[in-house]
Amino acid sequence: MEDFQEQEYEFLRRLEEERIGRRTLVKRGLAAGAGLTVLSLSPAALAARKQALADPPIAGRLVKLSDMVKEAKKEGTLNAIALPRDWANYGEMMDTFTKKYGIKITDDNPDGSSAQENQAIRSLKGDSRAPDAVDVGVSFAIAGANEGLYAKYFPTTYKTIPRAMKDTRGFWMGDYWGAISIGYNQGLVSNPPKTWKDLLKPEYKGKVALNGSPLTSNSAVSGVIAAALGNGGSASNVQPGIDFFAQLKKVGNFIPVQTTPQTVASGQTPISIDWDYNNFAYVKGFPSARWGVSIPSDGVYGGYYAQAVNATAPHPWTAPLWQEFLYSDQGQVIWLKGAAHPARFNDLAARKVIPAAVTKALPAAAIYSKVQFASIGQQTKAKALIATQWPTAVGA
Length: 396
Fold this sequence. Notes:
about 400 residues, alpha/beta, about 45% helix, D-Maltodextrin-Binding Protein, domain 2
């Protein structure tokens, strides 16, 4: 780990040196200079620091947070996209950010998919309405980084994000994870399903839905992977998951109406396969639906989402400030309050900064004891197979 940290620091140092174009300042310690007073800097250092502030930062430790806040307040707006207020507690997250910094947030297409988020970066390039940052599934993050859609950014707390949850080049970082669960309306489902195989029972005819389409939605792709685990497959072999949904459709249980908060509230979605934090949010958000949640015992799949900054963000200072907030202790706890496991959970727990009331409200840890995760390669392979097989086996 120490070797990795040294390599990361050296990479940041070289990158900043190239961007500023002043080798002298780098040698004097730009990385440490963020904590120095202006009076301690030489004229050359002052000039270089001024140049650094003329362009958005690539790493929080290379620019004082107060400078970042000042520049972001001048921009005054953060363009978010596809952030439902009841998804992972994003409502509180956005409200707290606005209250803390006085920066308004526009949230375009709140129920949008990961594919639509990347598409918005492409189609709105150079437009003031383009998203400043995105929250996408890992396979979509990899594709977006490879396409050049994202900018490098390393938040101040970067080193406390598990290495397995981040692109070490700085293009994206995992932000929170959850487990695929089965949510159900207790007023419409008298005998709640507890396993994947349960969902094939005749009593659930016309009642089972996915959150999105696996052709465009990471949550739906994850639902297919989870179904594979529960039907003899694995993270490396998701064909059984595709076959399961084909069978679910054949017996009439799978419905084409994709889950949204509105369909849950209205009763259009009696059973929803979705992330646990979404289903737990419905329990609180829609008491009239009498929503219940179970983690299928025959296939527990966990997956995380990733943050990325738009390479051509219309608010290039506010975008990294948003990242700093999300990966701060305050932001991470807000996600945890929404039953989403934040990327820096282990660091928070080790330093004992998680409020007792938040810990007490979390689901029992035992239900996640069998959780399995897929590697980046496995996710990419699964997404490709689903894209090929799903349209003919199940449909759009």
